[in-house]
Design brief:
Chain lengths: ~230, ~230
DNA sequence: CCAAAAGTGTTACAATTACACCCATGA
DNA sequence: TCATGGGTGTAATTGTAACACTTTTGG
């Protein structure tokens, strides 16, 4: 069967006859938001060459598996969450990128509500890291993370993705804090409220924050679907 | 050697043990501009199931080859042009997308000056097609083309990519015509000139169009590098 | 009553849009 | 002299950015 497949693939005419041995993986930058900072979920590499270095979460793509599904599977396995918005960002395929041979990886990012995540205890040192503090990662994962972060930043407020990072009920201050963390600079409060409220994407819950040691903020929820998610 | 690689790859822990048999290809939407229309270079499929259907230009990625290089190689082989700007757009990997087995493809787009292209005679029915007229393509190439075209449209004037579609000397009317073809709607002439000239990216060549049956336009050339290209 | 964050409008500036007439050339 | 497209400026509108004081709560 493998030989037959190889023969078929060879009829596709490439420069070399051995391209069918390329392995395909997915790597996910799973972003969360906590303590006014953008976080990314990392674990420890299990590659000897990169032992003890941090890496994004990934896995090989199964032979009968859609890469998008492989990415969902990775996120589900490590965080317990399903039906998240996952966006494909870029495919990294330099021949020398992986120490164990030819592995091409498709990078995705996901946005999760950090409070809902039950971290999978079976994953070594699985934990959240401030994106700004990440230094070295195994193989080319720093490059991959930078690409995912840039994509997230340039996606813009209009795509409403940031709501995936928040609990269902939130204040405008929390929402602003999310955008500040993503964009990396402070925003003007009045202009931010004007803009967001003018979009009519928030439903006023007629509720207030509780037990805060200052004037409580009004709570809202997001009106409308986040693409790829079901609430 | 193949068995050793497979064994190594199996240690990467996937759902199934046969992911290493996934084949990887590149497919290129090569855009050109002519007769006030955005064109794309197509050829005839050599897949029995899609015989006589049009397809984008692609090839398998060699085992030791960077996908970006594979895309350059494809463009060079069919058009004779090298050092073009090529942008990776998306990776398509549905398990059922290809009739000859598991082939995941990385899509790229390129912008070429159609006048410089010497079409490779060895490619069946290789020719330019108006993007707006493209109906059915082999496998999922219509989807791939739509993705590449959308990426090109949303890239915006600021990225200066459209210059790749023009000869070195061009008039503002030609440039405007390119943007109109890409964006799919007419633009106001005065506003367009104001915007482009205000960018200071054009050098006035102090030359005029020749042999046109109307008032000749001033010729310009692009000042500065198109990313990924050398002039 | 103090600290801390919520809530609220107006003005200046920049960017974008809409719009109409004269000019240079070849046929 | 006509047809064709080149070349030009201004006013209205819209969007964005800057900016300070009052309110509500818990401690």
């Amino acid at each position: 069967m493998a030989a037959l497949l190889a023969k078929n693939l060879n009829t596709l005419a490439g420069e070399s006859g051995d391209y069918f041995r390329i392995a395909l993986s997915v790597d996910c930058a799973i972003f969360g938001f906590d303590d006014h900072e953008l976080k990314v979920l990392l674990t420890r590499s299990d590659l000897g060459e990169f032992k003890n270095q941090w890496t994004l979460l990934g896995d090989m793509v199964g032979f009968h598996e859609d890469p998008d599904q492989a990415a969902s599977r990775v996120v589900k396995k490590r965080t317990g969450l399903r039906n998240l918005y996952l966006e494909q960002v870029h495919t990294f395929g330099r021949p020398d990128r992986h120490p164990r041979g030819r592995v091409v990886t498709i990078a995705y990012y996901a946005l999760v509500n950090i409070g809902k995540v039950r971290l999978n205890a079976g994953t070594p040192d699985l934990d959240w890291h401030s994106v700004g503090d990440v230094r070295q990662l195994a193989t080319d994962h720093r490059l991959i993370l930078e690409n995912c972060h840039r994509r997230l930043r340039t996606q813009g407020v209009e795509r409403h993705l940031a709501f995936g990072l928040l609990p269902p009920k939130f204040s405008l201050a929390q929402l602003q804090s999310v955008y500040e963390a993503i964009e990396g600079h402070p925003l003007d409060r009045r202009n931010f409220r004007k803009k967001i409220l003018g979009m009519h994407i928030l439903e006023d819950l007629q509720e207030m924050e509780k037990a805060v040691s200052h004037r409580p903020g009004r709570l809202y929820r997001f009106r409308g679907l986040i693409p790829g998610t079901f609430f």
